[in-house]
């Protein structure tokens, strides 16, 4: 089983349009971040987490020829707006793409992509929506994925656990009753925006405290803004077992 971080940036990506800070001017690949997304692979099964604005570019870069399903964490633009680009997968497989989301999120997709769900026209994306809850356990052959409720500010969204690993992005807090889904982790991917307080995202100090509480063997930070600083400098400040994620990172689970 393998998890690839397709993008590790925030909603603006890094570099940010028009910004001339050190991070946005950096040529180091770890300082260049597409919008956050991940790919879970296991025995020929490919599962995408979040089809954001860079979905097409991420699929091309990772050389992905088929997707079995898409999981959506929540309805914000940087996590769903690339969904029109499922079309090549539709054409290749001849089937609709299975998309799993909270009912609230699925209904938002129907509203924002009304042309997809109205009268079918040849060439449009084909999407098969499935409602899930924070208690859902999804099965793809022998790959099992557990949904996890996390809070993006006050907004309930989803994270996912697969085997001994978990992917959580856009977290601010985790309800107490969900910590039982995060025990005995080998790998944890979790967000940290930068070092300053933020109403809907963890900052680096808060992220490190939460990692300490969950106590995984290894933790990887994602969803980072350009304000976090240069990756090479930030990495020197992180405790043992915690690393900055980067676009294209492959984590063997």
Low-confidence stretches: none
CATH topology: Metallo-beta-lactamase, Chain A
- CATH architecture assignment name: 4-Layer Sandwich
User: What is the element string, with H for helices and E for strands?
Assistant: EHEEHEHHEHHEEEEEEHEHEE
Computed structural class: alpha/beta
**Number of discrete helical segments:** 8
How widely separated are the two ends? 5 Å
> Into how many domains do the coordinates divide?
1
Average pLDDT, rounded to a whole number, is 97
The biggest beta sheet is recorded as:
7 strands, mixed
Radius of gyration: 17 Å
Name the CATH homologous superfamily.
Answer: Ribonuclease Z/Hydroxyacylglutathione hydrolase-like
Shape: globular
* Percent strand: 25-35%
The proportion of residues forming helix, as a percent range, comes to 10-25%
Oligomer: single chain
Count the strands? 14
Which labels suit this protein?
253 residues, alpha/beta, Metallo-beta-lactamase, Chain A, seven-stranded mixed beta sheet, 8 helices
Describe this entry's structure for a reader:
The chain is of the alpha/beta class. It has a single domain (2-247), classed as Metallo-beta-lactamase, Chain A (4-Layer Sandwich). 21% of the residues lie in helices and 28% in strands. The chain contains 8 helices and 14 strands. The strands form 2 sheets. A 7-stranded mixed beta sheet has the order 6-5-4-3-2-1-14. The chain is globular.
């Amino acid at each position: 089983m393998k998890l690839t971080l397709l993008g590790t940036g925030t909603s603006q990506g890094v570099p940010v349009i028009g910004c001339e800070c050190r991070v946005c001017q950096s040529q180091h690949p770890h300082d260049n971040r597409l919008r956050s997304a991940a790919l879970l692979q296991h025995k020929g099964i490919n599962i995408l987490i979040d089809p954001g604005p860079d979905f097409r570019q991420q699929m091309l870069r990772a050389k992905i020829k088929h997707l079995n399903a898409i999981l959506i964490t929540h309805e914000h633009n940087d996590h769903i707006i690339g969904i029109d680009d499922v079309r090549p997968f539709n054409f290749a497989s001849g089937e609709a793409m299975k998309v799993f989301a909270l009912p609230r999120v699925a209904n938002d997709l129907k509203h924002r992509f009304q042309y997809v769900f109205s009268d079918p026209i040849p060439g449009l994306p084909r999407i098969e929506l499935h409602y899930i809850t924070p208690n859902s356990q999804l099965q793809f052959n022998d790959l099992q994925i557990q949904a996890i409720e996390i809070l993006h500010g006050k907004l309930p969204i989803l994270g996912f656990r697969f085997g001994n690993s978990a992917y959580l992005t856009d977290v601010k807090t985790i309800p107490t009753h969900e910590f039982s889904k995060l025990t005995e982790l080998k790998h944890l991917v979790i967000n940290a925006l930068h070092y300053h307080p933020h109403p809907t995202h963890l900052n680096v100090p808060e992220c490190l405290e939460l990692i300490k509480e969950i106590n995984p063997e290894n933790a990887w930070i994602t969803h980072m803004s350009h304000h976090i600083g240069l990756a090479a400098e930030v990495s020197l400040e992180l405790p043992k077992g915690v690393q900055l994620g980067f676009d294209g990172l492959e984590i063997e689970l």
